[in-house]
Structures are given as C-alpha cells and as structure tokens.
Amino acid sequence: MNHPHEIRPNLEQGIDRKVLSQLRQRYLTLNQGRLERAMEGLSSRQQQVLTLLALFFHVNHPLLPGYVSGATPAGVANFEPDAQLLAEAQRLTRSFSYKARRGNPPQPIHGLYLMGSLGTLAQAEQSDMDVWVCHAADLTENELTELRKKCQLLEVWAASQGAEAHLFLIEPQGFVQGERDSQLSSDDCGTTQHYLLLDEFYRTAIWLAGRTPLWWLVPVYEEQRYCQYIETLLSKRFVRAEDHLDLGHLAHIPPGEFVGAGLWQLFKGIESPYKSVLKLLLTEVYASEHPQVQCLSLQFKKAVFANRLDLDELDPYMMVYRRIEQYLQGRGEHQRLELVRRSLYLKVNKKLSGLPRQRSASWQRALLQRLSQEWGWDERQLALLDSRSQWKVRQVAVERRELVAELNYSYRFLCQFARNQNATSRIDQRDLSVLGRRLYAAFERRAGKVEFINPGIAPDLAEDTLTLVQSPNRKEPGQTHWGLYNGNLGVHEWEHFAPIKRCRELLELLTWAHRNGVIDSTTRLALHPGTSDLSEYELFNLLSSLQQSVPLPLPRVSDQRLLQPSVADEVLLLVNVGIDPLQHHRDLNVLMTTERTDSLSYAGVRENLVLALDQVTLNSWNEVQVQRYDSEHALLRCLRDYLSGLSNAGHRPQLRVHCFCHNRANAIAQRVEEVFATAQALLSQGLNHRYVLQVQQHTHVLELQAGAINLITLDSTEALLTYLCEERVDYSPLHLDGNALQDYDLAHLLPLGQPACVQVFYRIQDAWADLYVLDEHNALWQQRIPFHDESSLLLPLQRFLDSITLRSDARLPLDDLHCHGSAQALYYQLMPSGPGKVRSVEPRQAPRLTFGMPCYEVQAILQPGVGDRVMVTLYCNQREFSELEHGDQLYAMVAREIIAQRRQAERYRCYITDLDLSEVLADEQGSTTLYLRYKRELEQALNDGLEQIQADLDRRPAPLA
C-alpha cells in the first residue's frame, strides 16, 4: 500500500522538477534533524569545529586554522557563509574578515559530509568526526598535496578543541570506479569494501555543505537502471550538474564484500565484541539475502520517497537493529537476539537504571527507554548492564560464553558463505586463515592453556581482597587443589563460599588470575597453604615473576606472526612451588654441610632437590600455557619438552628460572638454569649433540637433534657404556654435565671427541691397561687387556687402524682423498697410571712399526651366512683357514699356526691386523667402532683358543732325557 505522500517518478511517465525539488527537501529536513542531534551531543568547542569546517575549506586565510598557502584549492560549491558563521569565525580569530569572491570563481570542493555515529543513537563523547571532503577530478598532484596538508592541519586544530576528526579526500568519479588511496573512515577495513561502505555512507552521512548526492533522487525501483536514470536527469536538465555529485549506486553488492566486511568486524570483535556484534549480524543478514540484497540505505531511501521521516525510526542504529531483529525472530534465535539487544544497549551507553519511567530529556535515553520497555527488561536487568564497569569474574565468564559462541558462529558462517559463493580471492583466503588463527588463539580451549575471559567485556576485573586456599579434594581422596575466593576469609570460613576459580595446581590458578587481571599489584591476598610449604614470601615472588614474564596488556599479534606456527616467546620455570625439598627429604637436613652440594645429586645420599617444575609459556600468538612436571624425572621431562619446542625453529625464547622455596632456592635455580642453558646452546649449534646428566643414581642422555629430542634414562654406568658404544652413522658431539661420571676415566676423555679422526686413549693399571677409542662419529669402544709394554699395547691397534683406513681410502676417488685426507689416529694417555682418579689427559705420538720387528699378519674376512650367521675366514701369514674347512676348530687351528711361528718362550696375545666387512655391510662404509667390535670378538675367540692350546702343551709330559 502506497503512502499518501509517496513520490514515484519514473522515466516512462516523465519526471517533474517540482517533485524532485520536494524530494531533495525531504532529505535536507532529515539531514537538519540529524545535524541538530549531533550538535546536541557535542561540547561547545566541538560544535565550533563542525560549524566552521565548511568556511575553512571555502577560503584560504592565513589567520584561519588549516592554512597552507594561497595556492591551496579553496571554494565549496554553492556555499556562502552567513553572518552568524562569520561572527563565529571572528570570535576564533578577531582579525579575520571575509570578502565574498566575485564573478564565477572555481569551486573545487564539491561537498562535505559527516558520516559515522554522530547524530545517531550511538553517539558518545568519544565519537570520531569522519568527514568526506569531495573534490574536483581535475586537481593537479601539487594541489592535492596542498589539500592533504590542509586536512592534516585541520585535524590537529580539531584535536586542540577536544574533537577527534578524520578528513578523507574523495574524488567522486574515481570513487565510482573503486579508486581510492586511503581508508575512508576510522572504521574502514580498506579497499575490499566499496559497496558496503557506500551503503553506510548513504544511510549515515550528514550533509554539511556543497553539492548533494544524485543517488537521493533515484527511486529504489530504478536502482538497476541508475546510470540511465541520472543520465536523463542531467541531460534533460531536470537537475543541474553543479548542484549534485555522483558516488554511485547499490544495485548489486559482490559476495566477496560480505566476506571482507565480516573479516574486519570479526578481527575487531576479538578485542571489542559488543561493538562488532551488530555489524557482524548485519553482514550475516545481507549475505543470507544474496543476491537479492535490500541493503539498509535502499530501505532508508524508500522511507524518504514515502515521506516517512521519523528521526527515531530512520536512525541508522535503529534501522540496523530492526533489520537484525526481523531476521533473528524469523529464525527463532531468541538468545542471539538478546545478545544483540545487550550489545546495542551497551554501545549506546546511556544508563537507564534508577530513572523514572517518564520521558527522558535526552532523545537517546528516551529512545533507548522505549526499546527496553518493548523488550520487557526490568529494573534488575538494566541495573546489571549499567554496572558493567564493576562486573567481575562470574558475570564476565557468563557473558563471554555467548560472545565467543557468536564470534565463532560468524566465522563459520563466513567460511561457508565464501565456499558456497566462491567468493574468496587468494588474499581473502589468507585473511580468513589468519582470522581463524586469531580466533583460535583468543578463544580455543585446550589442556594447559590459560583461558582469557575478558575480551572487552568489562574494564577491570581486579579484586581488592582475595583468599588463596589449598584444601583436600573430596572427589579424589589423597589429592589436594587450590581455590581463589572473594574477600579476606578466615580458617574454615572459606568452606561456606564458592570459589571464583579452582585448579589442581597453584601456578595454573595464579597464572589465570594474573592473565585476566583478577590479581593485580593492588590486590591483597590472604593465604591458607594447607599441607603445602607455600609462604607469603614465595607467593609474592611467584606473582612478581608472572608479571615480569607475562607483562600486561599484551601487544597485538601481527598477521606475519599468525602466518607462522606459534613459538614460545617467554618461558618461566618455577622450581619447587610450594615445596621445601629439605623438608621433603628430612634425612638430608643433617647433611647440608657435606662436601657434595649438587642440587641434582645432593649430599652423600645423592638426592635430587628438583622435585617439581611449573612452566609458564607466553607464545607468539599471545597464548599463555601452564604445564606441571613432578615426580622423579621432572627436570628431564621438562627439559626434553622445552627443547622439542625449539628444535624446529630458529627462534629462541626468553628463559627465566626462579626458585623461592625455603632452603637452597638460589642454588637450585642456578643449577636448573645451567642445565637448560647448556642444552639450549648445544641445540643452537645445529649438530646431533648428546648431553649426559647425572640425576640421583640415574644417568640421562638427551639426544639433541634438529627434528626430535630423545631422552634416554640409564640405570647404571654399565648401561651408559653400552649406549656410548653403539655404532653411529654421523658425528655426534658428546657433552657431560659437570657432575656426570665424576668417578670414572670416561669423564675426562668423552668431552675431547673430535670429528673426522679416531682418538685412542689408554691408561696403564699395573698388569692391565684400559684402551678407549672414540671413532670418527664419536662412538666409544673400550677394552681391558693384559699389559706388557706400550709398544705391544698400541702397535697392534695402530696396524689394524692403518689397515681399515687403507681399505676405506681405496673406495674413494683420488681427488676426494687428496682434498680431505685419510682419517687420522690421535693418541692420549690418561695420567697418572695406576689406581686413583685421573688428573690429566696427555697427547702421545702414534706408535710406528720399526723395521725388522717380527710381524704376524692375521687377516679376517667376514661374509653373510645362513640367516643372521656370519661366516669367518682367517688368513695367518697368507695361509687360509676357513669355517668351511675347519668348522668349530677354526680358531684352534689358527692358534696352533700362530704358536708354531713363535719362539717357544713367547707368551702374548694374538691380534687381528686386518678385517674385511665389505660383504657384511653390502659395500657400505662401516664405522671404526664396528670394525673394532668385530676385532675384539675375533681376538677373544683366537686368544681363548691360544690359551687352551698353551694349557694343553703345559700339561704334556716332558720328553725323556
């Protein structure tokens, strides 16, 4: 049904100039009402800014704000200041006098428009003034530069008057083509929103001076033929071109704009959800109607054509709300609608609680009051919303659930819409992915992550007084938990109250309270430590450490960091929280003065004083995580996980280690920090390092690799030796913690490992000698053998090493051999000889075979047999002895051959001098350790055979005289 005063011009039936003039006047009437509402909410100085802007763009005068030079483009179309405006300017600058320009001077400033929340239900004291300064298309680059400078100077002047103004230069022809060189409002997400920004402009803009939009005059039913319609208006001079400007139409909105608008509002909503909920829902409404979108600006234009000019109903925020209300009621989503109502009420920010029900003096309050009555809100509901600045944890947590659900719903809706409409460009897809990570980082729950409960809901959650309590967990007998309570509660008094938050571990609770601002520097804490050893001193220092490692407020995370996986930025390690280790190990109290004071193997009983670690991590996505490590291997598990987090990234976090327990706190913290620093430094070197630590009676090896961190726990020194002797395929530096293997020779030689060489260490122990070899990959080989002299100890080994080196070199191209050389054998003696601790490691010359010395060649060739069996063939002085021929008598036969070659009185070990493993290794190059291992097994078999034959000879009766 048509309104009695509805205007319906069309091209076929003709257009009436009088009707067009009447239509324009309706817009101007609405415009004046909005301008008056905008002025009502401004201070007198802010009003002055808005009033004088047109004059400042109309004239260039050195005494007026914004003056750049006489060459700056000036002159606002169809504008002439009245006496009241000139008087206002003279109050600002008494020496100013206005001279009207004669003739037909240029008017390059086509129009001034105020857009945004001024003049709307949501106008507040801090609302920005976003002004579009529309200018002629033919300005030179120098003129544009002058005009930009003028805008900047006027923004500075406005700020001095208490107004935050943003002046945006618009060239209408370029704008219609989608061209712009900057944001066009302080709430503008960039170039991806053209039509939605134009929609907002047409329904919110307040005309200040200059030309009026042609769009005003085009009926909604002619929007599809907009270009044809305005061409008729101009060509047939129904309107004058110099009275109007064209910013384009809204016949079609590309689906990608809904994605872009939603992304921007979701981005803002993570920190200020109430401000974004309305625009997010409007975007959803528009997108759900695509492609037949009736945007609000067209609805606004329909109302003007129909002469429905109620300022309240055409208020931009009222129109947004009504459209969303209609949409959600049609879907039966009443909970979402209640959230929208709360968001609108809090956005308007005009308190209604405690006010009489009669009409308020403020039009915003009166309209909001009418709405709240329509919604059925009672005084209790109003009082709750009006007290948002005092909301604390419980109310914020309730509100957060709904806000987070709404933001996540909007994100899923946008993703689905983008897929259905194929509406994402590669840039949009990147933005969607980054936004998904922002939402994940802000709101996703997972084990160990500290939930942030206050994304712009309440200004301050800090409590004046809190009580911290450790108490038995009735649901888990034998376990305890920690609770945080409002107020200063006495012993057992807290039992009658519900805690604000309850956690199994103290640090999880304190970190949550700090991250959410529940505990700040002014909060007073009462402590009931229960069965823990927590003191007020320790509690104070724990909170100080948290404030240092997780400084609030956290800075905004850049898109660049979100494009990468999250990495730790700050790591805080807190040792023995609420635990005194010397109380835990009461038998240690009497041993505190003993010589051995390593915190990981304390005193004579070798106890570990690191009983628990709490790790607090702030990562590059601003996520805060807490992890607890306790029990026997807490330190090593914590260290392994920490290093694993570093292994795939070059980034290194700031690591802080603290301990505040009653006994030996500094020594414990320093020891833990030393272990972490050493391991981190080794990992940073980029090789496959091994780090050996002694904790209590256990030896632990951390294998520090680029891809993974392995932790190996060994129960005995023998197990460690077995591990160290394992063959390796690459060089792996070995590092001993300062307290590892202190009582063993290995502690002196293992740290000396070098790549690309074989290192032989020996120590003479009276009738025995210990041989150790670190091969080219830093794997260990060791053997204890009878000692006669250094020559018989070292020469057989050197001959063997020379032989396998020769074999290895024969496999290499000569050029490679010349470039890199053969693996060198280095010799060292552990000193002093005999029993007792090693004091030094001294280099020795490699032994050399002297010409003329007897030399028995014993070569072994190993070949794969049946299954895992290896077949052995031995050559003694070039004579072949094989298992094929001699079976299990092989070693005895070779031993007889060796004895036959010796002088009768000689008794010493026999040695393998050469070994071929080419078939066993399938032509791969084995490590020196592997060759030495086979060598030792073969020599053991040979010498066992030798001893048996020698014993048989000794038992044989002496020959008759």
TrEMBL record:
A matching Pfam family: Adenyl_cycl_N
Parts forming coiled coils: none
A single BP term in Gene Ontology: cAMP biosynthetic process
Adenylate cyclase class-I N-terminal domain location: 20-216
GO molecular function, one term: adenylate cyclase activity
Source superkingdom: Bacteria
Stored InterPro entries: Adenylate_cyclase_1, Adenylate_cyclase_1_N
Protein name stated in the entry: Class I adenylate cyclase
Species: Pseudomonas sp. Hg7Tf
